[in-house]
Design goal:
three-stranded mixed β-sheet, mainly alpha, 3 strands, globular, 51% helix, 137 residues
Length: 137
């Protein structure tokens, strides 16, 4: 998988404009239940990949980035988050910045798919995200 990780990181770097990392993140396949518990506080969600601060990207074990373009685009998306994290020096961003970073990662993911001739409306849920809603909870 190391070769695939290097290729997908190359896409993330090329499409995002971030500098290549000194070290590659670890890609760890986990159950959908684990992702929902860890990334969505146990609530139902459609998460397929997750990058918490650190060096590990968690990927839904049902995804096959070798043979499925959408699955590999999820890895590219999460790699963009890894690159964003490295650039920020690990500092936790403000809510508005988190939304901008997520939109950027979806933009890179869409461009990756488009370069392969596929239009997939990833990130459509970002149209309804805002910090004012989170602040009221």
């Amino acid at each position: 998988m190391n070769e695939l990780i290097a290729i997908l990181m190359s896409w993330a770097v090329t499409l995002s404009g971030y500098s290549p990392p000194a070290a590659m993140p670890e890609i760890l396949a986990v159950s959908p239940t684990y992702l929902q518990t860890a990334a969505c506080n146990g609530g139902p969600c459609k998460v397929m990949g997750w990058f918490p601060p650190g060096n590990t990207i968690y990927l839904d074990q049902r995804l096959d980035p070798y043979d499925n373009l959408l699955a590999s685009s999820v890895v590219v998306h999460e790699m963009v988050h890894y690159l964003q994290y490295l650039k920020a020096g690990g500092l936790p961003p403000a809510c508005e910045d988190v939304i901008a970073l997520e939109r950027e990662a979806y933009g890179v993911q869409r461009e990756y798919l488009l370069r392969y001739g596929v239009y997939q409306p990833v990130g459509a849920s970002m149209h309804h995200v805002g910090c004012e809603l989170a602040a009221r909870e």
